[in-house]
Amino acid sequence: MHIPENIVWHESSVTKAERANQKKHKSVVIWFTGLSGSGKSTLSVALEKALYHLGIHTYRLDGDNVRHGLNKNLGFSPEDRTENIRRIGEVSKLMVDAGIVTLTAFISPYREDRDKVRAILDENEFIEVFVKCSLDACEQRDPKGLYKKARSGEIKDFTGIDAPYEEPVHPEILIDTEKESLEDSIQTIIKYLEINKYLSK
């Protein structure tokens, strides 16, 4: 999309580094991706609470929540899914600039769309967390009854049923929710953040 010449980016007089120094932690996007029912929202909620108790300034962007407001005009066609993720990427970038550890929980089925979000952020500001769970297990969980509706034809273009999901090739973190407990999964992510110096030990 072309940006008109009369629209100019205004730099802040407070830098990202200064915000990080004030908050005592780096800002980053932790991007949870996986099938519906894989455990993305559960993980992001638990991680946000754990980071809060560590004194980390966080905010969580959830797929359903965002579609109540910012993206309520978007459907689930491939084009709308791409635009959904593009907007979330731009919001996430603003939050990183604000010094916040931003957690996102979106199916985000297309690898290219996730890579585009990574590309608009600075190096090491995007942590892809692949929440791995088999389609069978997700269908058995089916917390919202969506798979049942998709199988019956009530919902069209449902990821994993009649729309594709492209797994990450090299995610920073892989969480297998069929094998790992919620507590262990959260500790895995926090350990990654500490080892890579996003958080102070």
What does this structure look like?
This protein is an alpha/beta fold and 201 residues long. The chain has helices at residues 16-23, 40-53, 63-66, 78-97, 111-120, 135-141, 146-152, 182-195, and strands at 28-33, 58-62, 101-105, 126-132, 173-176. The chain has a single domain, classed as Rossmann fold (3-Layer(aba) Sandwich), CATH 3.40.50.300. The protein is built from eight helices and five strands. It is globular. The chain starts with 15 loop residues before the first helix and ends in a 6-residue tail after the last helix. The relative contact order is 0.20.
Task: Describe this structure in a few short sentences.
By secondary structure, the protein is of the alpha/beta class. The chain has helices at residues 16-23, 40-53, 63-66, 78-97, 111-120, 135-141, 146-152, 182-195; strands at 28-33, 58-62, 101-105, 126-132, 173-176.
The SSE string, one letter per element, is: HEHEHHEHEHHEH
CATH topology: Rossmann fold
| Strand ordering within the main sheet | 2-3-1-4-5
Q: What is the first-to-last residue Cα distance?
A: 42 Å
Per-chain topology:
Layout: H1 16-23, E1 28-33, H2 40-53, E2 58-62, H3 63-66, H4 78-97, E3 101-105, H5 111-120, E4 126-132, H6 135-141, H7 146-152, E5 173-176, H8 182-195
Parallel strand pairs: 1-3, 1-4, 2-3, 4-5
Main traits of this protein?
201 residues, Rossmann fold, five-stranded parallel beta sheet, 5 strands, 13% strand
